Amino acid sequence: MIGIQLNGLHLVKPKKAVKKAFSLFCIPRRGKVKPEQMDFLNKAKHEIVEVENLALQTYNWKNNGKTILLIHGWESNTFRWMSLIEKLKAENYNIIAFDAPAHGNSTGNFLHVPLYTKCVEAIVKKYSPDYVIGHSIGGMTTVFHQYSYPNPAIKKLVLLGPPSEITEIMDDYQKILNFKPRVMRDLDIYFKEQLGYNFHEFSIAKFASNIKQPGLIIHDTYDKIAPVSASKSIHENYENSKFIETEGAGHSLNNDYIHGEIIQFLNN
Question: What sequence ranges are listed for the domain Serine aminopeptidase S33 (predicted)?
Answer without folding.
Answer: 66-187
